[in-house]
Structure formats: structure tokens, C-alpha cells
# Entry
Amino acid sequence: MFFMAFGDLILEVGSIGNWIQAVGLVVIIWIIVQGIVLFYNRRKWKLLKRFEKDLRRIEKKIDGLDKNRRK
# Structure
């Protein structure tokens, strides 16, 4: 009797262990995907910053030309 209950307990703990392992795998996959997304977002952010700098430089040149015309 005791060995049957002990065996059932071991099976139950094993089942819980499988669920914990599955959840851990999902978390690891989620972390990997978030790392990839972060990498691509960082690249896009750098590209937008470069466009912003170029746009400011162009605006300054246009403002300078506009001031020269007004004189």
C-alpha cells in the first residue's frame, strides 16, 4: 500500500516537473525572441537618429538661405 502511494507521488512530482520544464522552455524562447526584437529596434532607432541629424542639418541650411534672401 505504501509503495503504491509513494509511486503515485513520484509520478505526480514527475508530471509537475514536466510542466515546469515546459514553462521554462517557453520563457527561454520568449527571452530569445525579445533579444532579437531589441536588436532590430536598436538598428531602426539608430537609423532614425541619423535621419533626424540629417534633417536638422538640412533645415539649418534652408534657414540660412532664407535669411540671405530676406536681406
